[in-house]
UniProtKB/TrEMBL annotation:
Chain segments annotated as coiled-coil in the UniProt record: none
GO MF, one annotated term: DNA binding
Protein name as it appears in the record: Integrase
Keyword Membrane: no
Domain named DUF6538: residues: 4-58
Record keywords: DNA recombination
GO BP term, example: DNA recombination
A Pfam family the protein falls into: DUF6538
Length: 422
């Protein structure tokens, strides 16, 4: 950094990098640091040069043929010059002295105002129209708080249905500007889903999810971008039939089929241990797969696992809990005290286990799945008369009444679970 006085104030002097020669006619720039103190000048030099780079980068982007890039470049350039970007109409409504300040800030080499700088400071770069696909691009940033704490796999599964909903809408209606979406467009999209429901291709629940995710994207962009649009999204959902739930495995099936000698030998070790771990804990498959050496605790008086939001987001704050390990579940975890890296932060566990169970005749009915072990654990606790508070604490569910006190101790819970454990 070369710092020198010009008149009373210190300036930063630097050669213009080759990257910016096409937009900066000067070979060397002098940047005022607005101080007569050399110490202060040196402390401000790095920031002043960074601002200069930001302005040049914005000017480069301002030459783009892409409307979004030009608009963002104009906003960045205005900010680099110390102003908020306003459209031309808003600039015209400013006090005269504010308009004059903007005009005087426009560089004018050889008495010719710089066109890019003038457009940024006087607001003549039109804001690009937001299409449905563009709305999805904006949505990821505008809905950032919804993804905090999610693992890579959780994020992928969260994004996928929103991408699908937008893709389906564009395929049926087209990639319209969201300001131009009409009630007829939404009814056409609804009719598309109705046709598929009547053809038996999808359920009403699947169609409603698509409508919900599309609406979430459009409403979030409308709100966060302050567009003020009246979106025609109401009264579109389908009446859903009775929700199907996974049936539990019976005790006899677990004992005589799943735990029969050699029944699970064809399943890889980590998947087998996670299945066995689920039998006496009722954890969600994704919760078991996420466990690590820090959350598998076998050395204490009561061996247990701790479901925590480490590297992933829990389903709710109730899902944070500790679960004692007993019977076949404890034995399985002793084989993998450091966890299950093969399935951590991946969505393949249930598919692998269910495929194996189906292929080997280990599903009690076609509607059964690995998740049925969670329901079976709940039924065994209910049959044993275990208190509702304890059951909900073990399952990570909300209690439909006030939670008083700390609840049962880990030792007490372990003793109760041991009575129903396989």
């Amino acid at each position: 950094m070369s710092i020198a006085k010009r008149g009373r104030l210190y300036h930063l002097r630097r050669r213009v990098p080759r990257r910016y020669r096409g937009i900066e006619p000067r070979e060397t720039v002098w940047i005022s640091l607005h101080t007569d103190s050399e110490t202060v000048a040196r402390s401000k030099a790095d920031r002043a040069w960074s601002q200069m780079i930001e302005a040049w980068e914005a000017r480069l982007a301002g030459n783009s043929v892409d409307a979004d890039a030009r608009y963002e470049a104009a906003r960045d350039l205005a900010r680099a010059r110390g102003f908020r970007y306003l459209d031309a109409g808003a600039v015209a409504k400013l006090p005269v002295e504010d308009v004059v300040e903007r005009v005087e800030a426009i560089p004018a080499p050889a008495n010719q105002p710089d066109a890019l700088e003038a457009a940024a400071l006087l607001g003549t770069v039109a804001e690009p129209r937001i299409t449905v696909s563009k709305a999805l691009e904006l949505y990821w940033g505008l809905a950032k708080e919804k993804t905090l704490g999610k693992s890579e796999d959780q994020l992928r599964r969260w994004e996928a249905p929103r991408k699908k909903a937008v893709k389906n809408f564009v395929a049926v209606v087209g990639n319209k500007e969201i300001a131009n979406i009409t009630r007829d467009d939404m009814l056409d999209f609804r009719q598309h889903w109705l046709d598929r429901i009547e053809a038996g291709e999808v359920t009403a629940n699947s169609a409603n999810k698509d409508l919900i995710h599309l609406g979430d994207v459009l409403k979030t962009v409308n709100t966060m971008k302050r567009l003020g649009l009246s979106l025609p999204l109401g009264e579109l959902s389908f009446k859903e039939g009775e929700k199907l739930t996974r049936p539990p495995f019976s005790e006899g099936w677990i004992r005589t089929r799943l735990l029969a000698p050699g029944a699970l030998d064809g399943l890889n070790g980590q998947a087998r241990a996670l299945l066995l771990g689920m039998i006496n804990t009722g954890y969600r498959p994704s919760e078991g797969a996420a466990l690590t050496a820090d959350t598998i605790r076998l050395d204490g008086d009561v061996p247990h696992i701790s479901i925590e939001p480490k590297g992933r987001q829990l389903k709710s704050h109730y899902a944070r809990r500790v679960i004692p390990l007993t019977g076949v579940s404890l034995k399985a975890f002793k084989q993998f005290p450091d966890g299950f890296p093969r399935y951590r932060n991946r969505a393949t566990l249930s598919a692998v286990v269910n495929k194996f169970l189906r292929a080997n005749g280990l599903l009690e009915t076609p509607r059964h799945s690995m998740y049925s072990l969670r329901h079976a654990f709940e039924d065994r606790m209910l049959a044993a008369g275990i208190d509702d508070r304890i059951r909900r604490d073990l399952f990570g569910h909300r209690l439909d009444r006030e939670r008083y006190g700390k609840g049962a101790s880990l030792e007490q819970v372990a003793e109760l679970v041991a009575r129903i454990a396989f």
